[in-house]
Specification:
This protein has 13 helices and 14 strands. The chain has 409 residues and is an alpha+beta fold. The protein has 2 domains: 196 residues, no CATH class; 202 residues, no CATH class. The strands form 3 sheets. A 6-stranded mixed beta barrel has the order 3-4-11-7-9-8. A two-stranded antiparallel sheet has the order 2-12. Strand 6 and strand 7 form a beta hairpin.
Length: 409
Amino acid sequence: MNSTPFKIAARYLFSKKTRNVINLISGISLVVVACVTATMIILLSAFNGIEELVDGLYNKFDPDITISSNEGKVLFDDSLDLASIAKINGVLYISSVIEETAIISKGDSNKSLCKLIGIDTTYVKLSGIKENVVYGTYSLHEAGENFVIPGAGIAGDLGLQLRNGESENLRIYAPIRGKKISISHKKALRDEVVSTSGAFSINAEMDVKYVVSTLSFARRMFDYEGQSSYIGIEVVDENDSEEVRDEIKRLIGEDFLVKTRREKNPLVYETNATEKKAVFLILVFVLIIAVFNGMASLTMLVLEKQRDVSVLKSMGATWPFIKRIFILEGALINIIGAAVGTVLGLSLCLAQQKFGLLRLHGTVVDFYPIKIDGVDITVVISTVIFIGVIATYFMVNYLVKKLKETSAV
C-alpha cells in the first residue's frame, strides 16, 4: 500500500493516455527546473574556474604565506627564528624578499614607476617567475653582474626591444632612506645602471607593476642590509596554508603579521566569492518562479482528478494517502528536473574542460576556465529539491483541504 501513491503519481506524470494541457505544463515545468539546475551548475563551475585561474596567477608570484612586521616597513632577519619556522610541519621553503617602490628609466625620457622586488634563489622555487619569462632568459646574476627582469607591461612602456633576446641597459632610482622619493630631487635618490636579461608576463596587473632583481641588489639599492620587506613561505599542500599560518603565529607571537595568499589579496578573492553568491541567489529566485509554474500544473491536476479522488475515497483511501499522491507528483517533477539538469550541466562543463567550446582570445587562457566542485553540485541539487518539495507540500496541503471542504458539503 505504501508504494501505491508513488505508482499513481508516476502514472499521472508519464501516462500516454492523458496527453493534455496538464501534461504539457508539467513537462514545461520539468524542463524549466532542469534548465535552471544546469545553469546553476555551469555558472558556479565557471566562478570556480575563474577563482582557480586567479589563484594560479597569484601563485606564480606570491608565496603561500608571508610574514611581515607589525610595525614599520621592514623586519630584521635576526628578529625571526627561521630555523624553528622551517621545522613546522608543512613548511617547504622559506625565502627573504625585498619589495619597494622605485623608478626605472631607459635614457632620460622614458621613465616608469615600479615595484622592485629582490628575491633569493629559494624564491624561484616557490614562485613561477622563471617559467613565465617570455622574452630573453631568466638570469639575475651572472659573472659578477646583476640583471633585472621587468614585467612585459613595463618593458613595453619603456620601449625595450627584448623579443629577440637583446639586453637593454636601464637606470634604477631608489629613495635614500629618510628622504621622500622624487625624480626632481635627485639628491634624494640612489641610482644604478643595470642590464635586462628578459621580461616576464603573468597578468596585466603584475606585468606593469614589478621588476625582479636579486635580493642583494635590492638591499643595496634601498639600504636594507640584514632586513627584508617580508618572509615568503611555501607549504607542501596549499590546502594546509591556514593550519601552517596558525602554527607560525603561535611560534612567533603577535609582533608579526602572518597572512595567507588569500588574506594578502582579499579584494581579488572576495569579489569573486561575492559575485558567485549573488548569481546563486538570483538563480534561486528564478528557480522559485519555475517551481510556481509547476504548482500551476499541480493545481490543474488536482482539479482534474477530483473524480479519481472520489473513487479512491470510496475504496477506503484516507486523505493523507491522497495527499501523498499529489506531493509525490510535484516531487517527481522537481527530482527528475534536478537529475536531468545535473546531467546536462555536468556534461557541458566537462565538454568545456575537454574541448574548450567557449574560447577567449587575447587573454591569459585560451578558453573559459571551468572547475567542477562536488560541494557546489550537492548544494544545487539539495536547493532545487528542497524548494520544490516544500512548495509542493504546502500547495497540496491547501488543495486537499479545499477538496475535503468540497466533499464535506
